[in-house]
Write the structure tokens for this entry.
Amino acid sequence: MPTSRRSVLIVEDEEIIRTTLHEYLLSEGFDVVSAANVSQALQFARSREFQVAICDVQLPDGDGVALLRKLQQLQSQICVLIITAYATVESAVEAFKAGAYDYLMKPVIFDDLAFKLNRLFQYREVFLENLALRRELARHEMFDELVGSSQALRSVQESIRKVAVTNCHVLLEGESGTGKELFARAIHRAGPKKHEKFLPVNCGTMPVDLLEAQLFGCRKGTAGADSDQPGIFLLAGEGTVFLDDVAQLPVSCQAKVLRAIEYQEILPLGSAEAVRVSPRIIASTTRDLLREVAEERFQEDLFYRLNGVKIRIPPLRERLDDIPELVEFFLSKHTQAIGKRVTGVSGETMRLLMSARWKGNVRQLDNALQRAVIMCEGPQIQPQDLPSDILGIETPIPATDDLRSALRHYERLHIRRVLQQWPDKREAAKRLRLGLSSLYRKIEDLEIDL
């Protein structure tokens, strides 16, 4: 007898059989609902979820095989047993092709029904467990470079999962250094065209003619080309074109990108014939594009085309919980590249990293750890191995030869750094080996902004 109530839908037009099956399954601990025809069965299936359906092949308003297909459209994980009075090879093959798990002969033998039902539920549990494992494995592969487990990052990953399965265009909005191209690649890898090309182009790093030639291609003799050049929109095929920093896209290019999106065609430089293209567009920006539109620096139609699905990439200060995992990831990368053995960071170093401002976001953290691996002389990275801007020492040497001024400058910087690490002033005073009242006097005397 099952240890938990499992839901079963019985679809049988013969009242005696339907009632008998219903009462037997209730006595065995199943949660049972009975329907006399296809219409009633579909009505139940639309209002609640069933794990298993037991369907007669011949019903007054349809047949069990067609009903099986409709049930699986409504509930993709439902398993179906077919009941038939005329077991033939043809009917069995048709039922199995439609997705039936097994079939029962009339008159139904209760022992046979119980055995097949229990085996079916065991199979279903294993199948769902394997499905969950495959999804989890696919999720890790999909986001293997998106390091971290903070709520902010999980929200972005959830948005990516939803938008990736479509072929719609996406706008990624975020500060410099947040890794927008990394997220764009994750969308591409999770999408239906993941085996197609992913081609990035920075919209603000080259002259207009060269950028247009790179995006749309050009004919021989145009823009200094020795031969026909296809351009990124054509080379991408049905893959993804990533327009990095799209706010810097020249006005002359914006109309052409809009045409590529709206009409799926481009006009290469020096050509009189349009070329069909069909890539997905993912764009990124550090600016407020709506403001750019208002100030007439960005075409309004293109903005609304790109802004269909907007995903905000959070800055590092909003995902501080990810810093330990990012540190581990970057240390592994840089120690392998540099060929130096560094096992980790000290506790004081980690506290500094967690309290830093990170104006340059993940890119700044990556660069800081690369520098720290180079400078480190022991098995662990210490605070002195970090760049001065991370330590809060933006001007480590004062512009004076006066020793007292230099000492005062360094004392202010050192106390400020310790207070950033240890906001509790009692603990900070203990670390500085000062009395609490002395620390307060130093804060006032040195004009330390808390």
Observations:
- Residues 189 and 206 are 28 Å apart (CA to CA).
- The mean pLDDT is 84.
- The first helix runs from residue 15 to 27.
